[in-house]
Design goal:
The chain has 271 residues and is α/β, with parallel strands linked by helices. The chain folds into two domains: 4-165, Rossmann fold; 169-265. 46% of the residues lie in helices and 15% in strands. It has eleven helices and ten strands. The strands form three sheets. The chain has a six-stranded mixed beta sheet, with helices on both faces. Strands 2-3 form a two-stranded antiparallel sheet. A two-stranded antiparallel ribbon has the order 9-10. It is globular and about 75 Å long. 32% of the residues are buried.
């Protein structure tokens, strides 16, 4: 299902929706300030309008993507990334959620099929659903560029662009994120490495081995360490199949070829 014709011919796919994003957008749009006079202002939010807008959005994207069913992904209140890097999304503590956000989420959870897993962000839930439960037969509805690190069909909220991201492109996007970081999520990547430089570093790499080797080399060439690269990768990584333990509710942090790089660096220092 890698071309657009096959995509639309398939009427049995699962639509996986970024619930955090769509509810935040709707709840934000509902807020209206009211002036009661005598310097008294309040915020008004019509919950019934919010429910209607959510229904309309889901029906619109379901029809647009010709999906058979819908599942909504939500973040847990705990985030495993914050346990090993307290700066991750730390600025968001100061940002007020729209007043209708929580009531709307609770309503969605009562009326739609949804997934939320302990210690995970909604993006991770989407990644697991797309690469495990509904692999090869889904479309992701999100406005987050980080989702391009997941191999799947994507429909981007805002411009409704449909795009298929294959495995190599997903790995490329992930490695690019490790190099450039993400200001919105609060991790820096490699200092001084922007999108243009990252594209040069990763140019013509044919698989994850070559891509990750290029990332490690660029970190070390700029005075950082392989450990720094792994730390940034663990913040950037959206979980995929096999990267979450459903028994312990813990993620399996990005450790691809970690022992190789650790041992070779230790041997260099020893010699």
């Amino acid at each position: 299902m890698k071309n657009i014709k096959d995509f639309y011919d398939n009427n049995n796919k699962m639509m996986i929706v970024d619930g955090d994003l769509i509810i935040y957008k709707i709840a934000s749009s509902l807020e209206e300030p009211i002036d009661w006079g005598n310097d008294v202002w309040t915020l008004h939010s019509d919950f019934n309008v919010g429910k209607q807008l959510f229904k309309q959005n889901i029906e619109y994207y379901k029809n647009y993507t010709k999906s058979a069913d819908v599942v909504i992904a939500f973040s847990d209140k705990e985030n495993f990334r914050k346990h090993f890097d307290s700066s991750y999304k730390s600025y968001r503590k100061k940002i007020r959620k729209p007043i209708c956000y929580q009531p709307l989420r609770k309503w969605v959870e009562k009326n739609y099929k949804f997934f939320s897993l302990p210690n995970l962000e909604g993006d991770d839930v989407i990644g697991l659903l797309a690469t495990q439960h509904f692999k090869t037969n889904n479309v992701i509805i999100s406005g987050d560029k980080d989702m391009r690190t997941i191999s799947s069909w994507h429909c981007f909220i805002g411009d409704d662009q449909l795009e298929y991201v294959d495995e190599l492109k997903a790995d490329y996007n992930f490695c690019s994120q490790v190099l450039t970081g993400d200001v919105a999520d609060g991790y820096r990547g490699l200092k001084g490495c922007g999108a243009v430089k990252a594209s040069r570093v990763l140019l013509d790499k044919k698989n994850i081995d070559e891509l990750w080797e290029a990332v490690i080399q660029e970190y070390e060439r700029n005075g950082s360490t392989y450990e720094d690269a792994y730390h940034q990768a663990r913040l950037a990584r959206i979980l995929k199949i096999g990267e979450y333990d459903f028994k312990t509710n813990k993620p399996k942090l990005w450790s691809y070829k970690y022992e190789h790089y650790r041992d070779t660096r230790q041997n260099k220092r020893a010699s």
